[in-house]
Amino acid sequence: MLSYHRRNVSWRFLTLAVVLLAIVGEINALLILIKEKTTNTLICFGSNSCETVLSSSYAYVLGVPVVWLGILFYLAVFMLGCVALARHGGTWTKALAGVSFVGFLFSLYLFAIQWFVLGAFCYYCIVSFVDALVIFGIMVFLLIKNSGPFFVSDKNKAGT
Fold first, then answer.
1. Cα atoms in the 13 Å half-sphere on the side-chain side of 98
2. Would you say residue 151 has pLDDT above 70?
3. CA 72, CA 134: separation in Å to the nearest integer?
4. For residue 58, with 0-12 CB atoms within 10 Å meaning exposed, 13-18 middle and 19 or more buried, which class applies?
5. By the 8 A CB rule, do 31 and 44 touch?
6. Domains contained in the chain, CATH given
7. Span of 3-12, 58-67, 70-79, 121-130 with lowest mean pLDDT
8. Other CB atoms closer than 10 Å to residue 123's CB: what's the count?
9. pTM for the complete prediction?
């Protein structure tokens, strides 16, 4: 069994990785937003698949562009990750895991739409899907491997 210190270091490292992945996701989503708000076209590596995906009816949910949902998702992951690091986990890590689960499910849904309905893949959307998948994977790993003292507040740890 890992010592408390070694598990704490791995928990911090993995939570920091989630925060950094949220920054990558935010930048990716902002690139799509910039494309939407300007006349610029996205660099799509020799295909027009990005335009096909981003101009489809699936690029909106209840009239809201999906890119804004991505921006909010990555901002929430970033903020929850930073608070979890500052507060040493606890409820904040559980909240981060919950948000990552919802974001991953929605990203999986959008990936399935690209594959089975549109037959076109937006590279930026795939980057977002992989990013959400890795964030969720890290959170599942943390929940399984470090479910002991990292999900209890510091006050409760001191009292035991």
1. 7
2. no
3. 18
4. middle
5. no
6. 11-155 (1.20.1440.130)
7. 3-12
8. 16
9. 0.84
